[in-house]
Amino acid sequence: MAERYAIDVTGFLDLAARTAQRMDTLTEAVFGVLSVVREIQDAMAPAPDLARAFARAVDSWVERATALAEHGGAVLAAAERAVAEYVRADAAMAIDTERAAQTRGHGRWRVS
After folding, report:
1. Any alpha helices (H) in the chain, and if so which ranges?
2. Residue 52 lies in a domain
3. pLDDT on residue 1
4. Nearest by Cα to 40 from 53, 54, 29, 26
């Protein structure tokens, strides 16, 4: 088996931390926009036609921004779970390999 598969765990953790910080910034910005949109909607409440027109103009953008923040967070969480599972599997394989190297067989099947 000539190919080796490896993950730069330290590099990934660094990237994940920086990405998480930026996702937090994005989420805060989205919540800020949602707050402003609600304030505008409240201000427009006395003018229902204007409020409906505003809603038509911004509702899809609000949904997309919210979905973007949620999806980005979900992707990051999935990647972190995958790397954690890789590390666990790698550690288990190393333990099994060490045990196999120390075992010489049992009973009649002793390996010399």
Report:
1. 9-44, 48-102
2. yes
3. 47
4. 54
